[in-house]
Amino acid sequence: MRSAFLKKCSWALVVIIVISMFSPLCSAENQNKENEARLTYIINCSGNIDHGALSTTVKTKISGNSSVTSVKIKMELQKLSSGTYSTVETWEQTFSGNEGIMEESKVTNPFSTYRLKATFTAYSGSQSETKVVYAYES
Q: Which residues of 52-75 are buried (b: 16+ CB within 10 A; e: fewer)?
């Protein structure tokens, strides 16, 4: 009788531990969705990286709402070395209006790992909003 009770308690404890392990993941996911919903001026922004045999190409795009008067894109090509990414090239451009598109290439080592760090900023009068996006090689 006592053995059956201990088995039930053990299973209940395992279930509680498993649920508590996934709870922070769900919380972080919900927090990211809340942060996305708080964006006022940026409607959409994205980045892409294509690491080829001789060069790496990075592409970005931002779209702001109708109150946006200008947008800025800063692209940083970052190389992984000893577990840390460091910037090897930076490009930056400001666009009039509420949209901007950039594409740049750089000769790179085919055996290295790279990522794109893109910083998007939308301006509306004296107000601005910034979002950082990372794109990784596929």
A: eeeebbbbbbbbbeeebebbbbbb
Query: Which DSSP string corresponds to 68-105?
Result: --EEEEEEEEEEEETTEEEEEEEEEEEEESSEEEEEEE
pTM score of the predicted model = 0.73
Pick the CATH number of 42-136 from 2.60.40.10, 3.65.10.10, 1.10.390.10, 1.25.40.20: 2.60.40.10
Kindly report, residue by residue over 64-102, the tens digit of the pLDDT. 999 999 999 999 999 999 999 999 999 999 999 999 999
Query: What does the pLDDT look like over 45-66, one tens digit per residue?
Result: 999 999 999 999 999 999 999 9
Strands (E), the chain: 42-51, 55-64, 70-81, 84-96, 99-107, 114-124, 127-136
